[in-house]
Write a structure and sequence with these properties.
The complex is a heterodimer of chains A (238) and B (233).
Chain A lengths: L4 E3 L5 E3 L3 E3 L2 E7 L6 E4 L10 E2 L27 E13 L14 E2 L8 H10 L1 E6 L8 E4 L18 E2 L7 E2 L1 E5 L16 E3 L5 E6 L12 E12 L4
Parallel strand pairs in A: 4-6, 8-12
Antiparallel strand pairs in A: 1-2, 3-16, 4-16, 5-15, 7-14, 7-16, 9-10, 9-15, 11-12
Chain B lengths: L6 E2 L5 E2 L4 E2 L4 E7 L7 E3 L36 E14 L19 E2 H10 E7 L3 E7 L10 E5 L14 E2 L11 E8 L5 E7 L14 E13 L4
Antiparallel strand pairs in B: 1-2, 3-14, 4-14, 5-13, 6-12, 6-14, 7-11, 8-9, 8-13
The chains are: A mainly beta (238), B mainly beta (233).
Chain lengths: 238, 233
């Protein structure tokens, strides 16, 4: 059922004639062992993707698959968004290589782009995800450890129960360990805010990804992380 | 996309959420060791304070708690209406090699292995007190699933901890999904400046059989989630 009006916490009511359901997304990349303090939505297509540490693949320019945000760290002057939820996706940029089990036969828990569930649990323990609106505003509009946000998008997998033998890439034997932040379900596993957050036209905004407790020392894969602001967007009027 | 215009509290007060947020839960971390421990109290410290039960003890950062001030009370310029409570569990460190409880294979950190998770759920009581003396909940942590974690798929997986010689079985405190969190039938209200505590203890004085080395800990991150009024600039 389509939404026709949104009432914001401050009493403002939006009529959704020019609005549509539109997820805004932006990726960042982190190296295993890095200290992270990155801002998503701080770049547009063609700019460098924000990276922490020496990421596998090195610095690279953003493509349309990396972000659909069209202005750097602010809302476009003729657009606005109302955010109801934040969710994430994760991809490994390299094979997992836990030090104790790299002897012959070579073993690992995952190859790129599979990000191990154990690595994801480390991120959930160590990483903060925050959402800021406004210039020089230190009060976040959303702030919580990464584990607080469910994962409404991603791949559901089913294991065979047997080790996997691969050829040609990375280690030869995969004892698969794959995980997602809860069961993939946009209805049941995106933590939907009862009070949405509005980013008005031209307002400064960004999502901050950080590790306030120190480096990701136990994470064994470089990874790409997509931050999705799920909600509605007011499109430019022609 | 349900929206809230007014919140009616059990006492009859109606809160209009202008400066409120539902996107910033209040959380605090404590750590549990094997063996006897006194009552361990979450929210008893502010950011920068030491984490109860931790090795060292460890100084907290934003990832441990977002409670500001000296702890044990909500800052004067905040309010909290609690709709859900959740406890998320991590293991930091290894099983005890000197006194293993059952020989069950250890799980790679920060996963908690299944036997230890069942022991925690069996023995660890969580008590929420508001205004110091009155208890608002008293039940074991199994009643308060985290509603977060990792849905794992393993295919013949072996652990790094075992140098690839064995697998293990990992477990969450309940379902790892957002809808797996328990919602309170009536909200709990904490006024600005009001004292509150979230205490963990065991009827046995310890989590019986908890298989952890001397410097290993189960890290519990506790979330009080609902409507939160934050400082106005």
């Amino acid at each position: 059922m389509a939404i026709q009006k949104i009432r914001l916490p401050n009493g403002q009511t939006l009529n959704l004639e020019e609005w549509l359901h539109w997820p805004s997304f932006s990726v960042v990349e982190c190296a295993a062992g890095s200290n992270v303090n990155l801002r998503a939505f701080s770049y547009v297509v063609g700019d460098r993707v924000p990276q922490a540490g020496a990421v596998a693949g090195g610095p690279r320019s953003a493509t349309e698959s990396d972000t659909n945000w069209v202005t750097k760290s602010r809302a476009n002057h003729d657009e606005a968004i109302v955010v109801f939820a934040i969710t994430n996706e994760y991809w490994a940029l390299e094979a997992d290589a836990p030090a104790p089990i790299t002897g012959a036969p070579a073993q690992c828990a995952a190859v790129s782009p599979i990000f191990t569930g154990t690595n994801l649990r480390w991120l959930q323990l160590l990483m903060m995800q925050e959402f800021f609106v406004g210039a020089n505003i230190s009060k976040p509009m959303a702030s919580a450890p990464l584990e607080y946000y469910g994962q409404g998008v991603g791949a559901v997998a089913y294991g065979s129960g047997d080790p996997l033998t691969v050829t040609g890439i990375g280690p030869g034997l995969i004892n698969l360990d794959y995980g997602t932040a809860g069961d993939i379900n946009p209805v049941l596993n995106q933590r939907r805010w009862a009070m949405p957050v509005m980013v008005a036209s031209d307002r400064v905004m960004y999502a901050k990804i950080s590790t306030p407790g120190g480096a990701l020392t136990n994470v064994t894969q470089d990874f790409r992380m997509k931050i999705i602001l799920d909600g509605v967007k007011r499109r430019p009027v022609a | 996309m349900a929206q809230v215009w007014k919140v009616r509290l059990p006492g009859g007060n109606v809160v209009t959420p202008g400066e409120w947020t539902t996107a910033e839960p209040l959380y605090s971390t404590v750590e549990i060791a094997a063996g006897a421990f006194p009552a361990i109290v979450a929210f008893s410290y502010g950011r920068g304070g030491t984490v109860p039960g931790s090795v060292g003890p460890r100084q907290s950062t934003l990832i441990d708690t977002n409670l500001d001030g000296e702890g044990n009370r909500l800052p004067e310029n905040e309010e909290l209406v609690i709709h859900t409570i959740g406890v998320s569990c991590f293991k930091i460190g290894l099983h005890s090699s000197a006194n293993p409880t059952d020989g069950f294979p250890d799980a790679d950190n920060p996963h908690v292995d299944l036997p230890n998770m069942l022991r925690l759920q069996r023995d660890l009581l969580m008590i929420l007190s508001i205004a110091a003396v009155k208890e608002y909940t008293r039940s074991t942590i199994s009643y308060w699933p985290g509603g977060m974690g990792v849905s794992s798929v393993f295919s013949g997986g072996v652990t790094s901890e075992s140098s690839g010689s064995t697998g293990s079985v990992v477990a969450n405190n309940g379902s790892p999904s957002v809808n797996g969190r328990r919602e309170l039938a009536s909200e709990l209200y904490i006024a600005g400046g009001e004292g509150f505590q979230l205490t963990f203890r065991s009827g046995l004085g310890q989590v019986s059989g908890l298989d952890l080395a001397a410097n290993a800990r189960i890290r519990l991150r506790c979330y009080l989630d609902g409507y939160r009024r934050r400082p106005v600039a």
